[in-house]
Design goal:
Elements (H helix, E strand, L loop, with lengths): L8 H13 L1 H12 L8 E6 L4 E6 L2 E2 L1 H5 L4 H4 L3 E6 L8 E4 H17 L7 E5 L4 H13 L2 E4 L6 H11 L3 E5 L2 E3 L2 E3 L1 H9 L7 E5 L13 E3 H7 L9 E2 L3 E7 L7 E6 L1 H14 L7 E4 L6 H13 L3 E5 L10 H9 L3 E4 L1 H8 L4 H4 L8 E5 L5 H11 L6 E4 L33 E4 L5 E2 L4 E7 L9 E2 L3 H9 L6 E9 L5 E6 L3 E4 L2 E4 H9 L4 E11 L3 E10 L8 H15 L8 E4 L13 H8 L15 H9 L3
Parallel strand pairs: 4-17, 6-7, 6-8, 8-11, 11-12, 16-17, 16-18, 18-19, 19-20, 30-31
Antiparallel strand pairs: 1-2, 3-13, 4-5, 9-10, 14-15, 15-24, 21-22, 21-23, 23-25, 25-26, 27-28, 29-30
The structure holds ligand 6R9.
The site of ligand 6R9 has 22 residues, from helix 11, strand 20, strand 25 and strand 26.
């Protein structure tokens, strides 16, 4: 049992050593003692990073919803599973017990079956943070359909790309969504997207805003009447451990978004294990992660990890600034939240506001605070620690990725001494390595390099949907025999890790991963644009903001530059979503390029960050005069 729940630092080191000495034995013990399997595995782990092929608990049979719901019914059936806090604070919160969740998931699963959805079919879910989102996710898992949740802030084009990439025939959505004081026409976005998705035969619509929407005859149906008619029990489809559970898209540094495929058994074991330890979860806790289920954080630490532990998980529909900047703390006080998990960008935004928004609430229920999504700066860390945690709550700075499925590096609260801006130590079973430019491992402490992981863990993504070659190229080719994360990191004198940021062309804006290529593609669609390059630059609240260098087709005044900038941002909003809008746009005569024609983004990054004292090696630069001019006119 002690393997499953680490309670002090010495125990962490013991467990860690054991997990590295014998990973199979370690994970087998965790899997055996804490989960419900219809049939045990033939082998714990088979792997070959050169193919790459990774299988955990191969041959085992299970259904993840049986682990997340059914097995709790006899012991905590009347406990709240999902605590829904609506956008409007005057609308009552909804407590969905495990019994009720069981019934609602079963009904939804039966509706999906009635609509012809079968095991292995992909279902795209484009829903706001309302209970139907979590229920739809679990309903898919119940019948073995592969869910692909698309964050409901993505544009119609981004949605269409994802629907077509995974070959979904069904989309689950709502009439609209609330975001603070705004209502968003989600169904309209789906209608627009589906013009490009001929294979989608059916759309189920949840009612949320009650706004007028278009229902296409023969394709669209309101889901509630179907749920009302559906049978309230649905036996779970028995899945293989390695059957896909979901696809979740993440931005790559080039090309289209990557549909990361997560499978069933290993994902369940790892998310449940890390949830328990990273949040020191106990039975009476009220756990709240403010992420959206459209991101991996929501999948693993709103839905699967907490429910697998029988926890009460808060699902929040709103935003931190509505009706005012005290909303998070109002919710913490109201529901006596014990663990609170959010993004550095939210902390930075709230820290800018009057402290009264925090101090007027009773936050004494809090025991653990968490952050995820991007590096947390020292100032934000201290504000969080002082004013939210009252210096009594350990902060878990959790580093992980869509691809990793679960948290890989994080303190264990009340065990690992925390250190501002450090994600600290690897979880049991995680073997990090720092590599130099030549792909050699850098041993010892007080070093920095590219962060890799040497050995598989149960929740690593198994492939990119429909493109195994790209999976291999992106993650297993940069450094032979290791999983390459795309992040840089340093290891301090005691072996703590600090993530320093991406070393590729992914930019993290407000905790969202954005690839430069798709944004540049969107900009380049503008008839006046010849070429563009996007880089990140430091931003007080967002962490990074986007700076676009754009070459226009015609020299001289094409037309009003301000309007042009607006049109460009409009194009980005249409193609990707408002999160990818540029904060600064500089029209330039050319871009710094190497002789082989590659844009030297390093130089553009330095100019955007106003750090031009040392531009580094510019000897391969083809057009140094352009750099001079860009610097002169920089914003
Ligand atoms: C879970 C999630 C992954 C990228 C990752 C890294 C950055 C995440 C971080 C962090 C510093 C942390 N990142 N957590 N950087 N400290 N605690 O965010 O997944 O959306 O795929 O982003 O986010 O750069 O590589 P995802």
């Amino acid at each position: 049992m002690s393997n499953y729940h680490i309670k002090h630092l010495e125990e962490y080191f013991q467990v860690y050593r054991k997990s590295v000495r014998n990973p199979e034995g370690f994970w087998e013990e965790v899997a055996e003692e804490h989960f419900l399997w219809r049939k045990k595995w033939n082998s714990v782990l088979e792997w070959d990073f050169s193919k790459p092929e990774i299988k955990w608990f191969d041959g085992a049979k299970l259904n993840i919803t049986e682990n997340c719901i059914d097995r709790h019914l006899s012991i905590r059936g009347d406990k709240t599973a999902i605590l829904f806090e609506p956008n409007d604070p005057n609308e009552p919160a909804e407590h969905i017990t495990y019994h009720q969740l069981h019934e609602r998931v079963c009904r939804y699963a039966n509706v999906l079956k009635d609509q012809g959805v079968e095991k292995g079919d992909r279902v795209v879910i484009y829903l706001p943070m309302i209970p139907d989102l979590a229920i739809a996710v679990l309903a898919c898992a119940r019948i073995g359909a592969v869910h692909s949740v698309v964050f409901a802030g993505f544009s119609s084009t981004a949605l269409a790309t994802r629907i077509n990439d995974c070959g979904a025939k069904m989309v689950l959505t709502s009439d609209g969504s609330y975001r603070g004081s705004k209502a968003i026409d989600l169904k309209g976005i789906v209608d627009e997207a589906l013009k490009q998705c001929p294979d989608v035969k059916s759309v189920l619509v949840s009612k949320r805003t009650g706004s007028e929407i278009n229902m296409k005859e023969g394709r669209d149906q309101w889901v509630q009447p179907l749920l009302d008619k559906a049978y309230a029990d649905c036996s779970p489809v028995v899945m293989d451990s390695e059957d896909p559970l979901f696809i979740l898209y993440t931005s790559g540094s080039t090309g289209r978004p990557k549909g990361m495929v997560h499978t069933t058994g290993g994902y369940m074991v790892y998310t449940a294990y890390t949830f328990k330890n990273v949040f020191q979860y106990k039975e009476e806790d009220i756990y709240w992660c403010t992420a959206d289920i459209g991101w991996i954080t929501g999948h693993s630490y709103i839905v699967y990890g907490p429910l697998a532990n029988g926890a009460t998980t808060v699902m929040f529909e709103g935003v931190p600034s509505y009706p005012d900047f005290g909303r998070f703390w109002d919710v913490v006080q109201k529901h006596k939240v014990t663990q609170f998990y959010t993004a550095p960008t939210a902390i930075r935004a709230l820290a800018k506001e009057n402290l009264d928004f925090v101090t007027k609430y009773d936050l004494s229920s809090l025991k653990v605070l968490g952050t995820v999504g991007e590096p947390i700066n020292e100032e934000a860390w201290h504000w969080y620690n002082d004013h939210v945690g009252d210096k009594k709550c350990p902060i878990v700075d959790t580093w992980w990725q869509t691809e990793t499925g679960g948290i890989l590096i994080s303190p264990i609260p009340y065990s690992t001494p925390t250190k501002p801006t450090y994600a600290t130590l690897p979880m049991p079973g995680i073997q990090p390595a720092l590599m130099d430019e030549n792909g050699k491992e850098i041993k010892g402490n007080q070093v920095d390099g590219r962060l890799c992981i040497k050995f598989p863990w149960p929740s690593i993504a198994r492939t990119i949907w429909g493109n195994h070659e790209r999976y291999k190229d992106t993650y297993f080719s940069a450094i032979e025999g290791k999983y390459f994360t795309g992040d840089g990191a340093l290891r301090d004198e005691v072996g703590y890790y600090r993530i320093t940021g991406r070393v590729d062309d992914v930019i993290i804006v407000s905790g969202h991963n954005l690839g430069t290529a798709p944004i540049e593609d969107a900009i380049n669609e503008h008839p006046a644009v010849a070429e563009s390059a996007i880089v990140g630059f430091p931003h007080d609240i967002k962490g990074n903001a986007l700076y676009g260098y754009i070459i226009l087709k015609e020299t001289g005044e094409y037309r009003n530059r301000e309007n042009l900038a607006k049109e460009i941002n409009q194009l980005i909003t249409e193609h990707i979503g408002p999160i990818a809008k540029l904060d600064k746009i500089q029209f330039v005569p050319g871009l710094p390029k190497t002789r082989s024609g590659k844009i030297m983004r390093r130089i553009l990054r330095k100019i955007a960050s106003k750090d031009t004292s040392n531009l580094g090696d510019t000897s391969t630069l083809l057009n140094p005069e352009v750099v001079e001019q860009i610097m002169k006119e920089s914003l």
